[in-house]
Amino acid sequence: MNKIVLMGRLTKDPEVRYTQSGKVVCQFTIAVDRPFSGEDGKKEADFIPIIIWGKPAEIAGNSLAKGHRVLAEGRLQIRSYDDNKGVKRWISEVIANSFEFIERKADGATSPASPAPTNNNPSPMDSFGTPLPYNQEEIPF
Questions:
Q1: Given CB 3.0 to 4.6 Å as the disulfide criterion, which of 32, 126, 127, 131 pairs with 122?
Q2: Nearest to 46 by CA among 36, 33, 35
Q3: In sequence order, which residues have a C-beta less than 8 Å from that of residue 1 and are 6 or more positions away?
Q4: Which ranges of the chain have pLDDT less than 50?
Q5: b vs e for 109-118, b when ≥16 Cβ sit within 10 Å of the residue's Cβ?
């Protein structure tokens, strides 16, 4: 079974593209904290590329921005290619089936590329109240 679930913060705004056949694809990278600190005592993170297709890609492209915390679920894909010098390169990425909004970046620090949401059509997410701060020490694994 190839299943992966990751939670992290977007390192930059998502990129949305359309293939020649008209399919929509969204790419973004999330920074996932490691559960331990490095030798110097600083937290370390892995930067994991996420690719999502179809309607979820449109939603991600329109809703996510740099700094937002997101949970992505999908499968790990490892592929290779030969660069222009003939050296074989490997790429690891997550092909996501779905994602969930965990929290937005702190108030007052929103990205200029993502306008503030309007409440003309409140989403079901609006009824959940304010997000709780994330505390890694409380995770049981």
A1: 126
A2: 33
A3: none
A4: 107-128, 139, 141
A5: ebbeebeeee
Instruction: Give the structural domain span for 43.
Output: 4-138
Query: H-type helices in the chain, by residue range?
Result: 55-63
Which SS3 state, helix, strand or coil, does residue 136 take? helix
> Among candidates 47, 44, 33, 26, which has minimal Cα distance to 99?
26
Q: How many domains does the chain have?
A: 1
The span from the CA of 63 to the CA of 83, in Å, is 34
CATH at 48: 2.40.50.140
* pLDDT value of residue 36: 84
- The model's pTM is 0.69
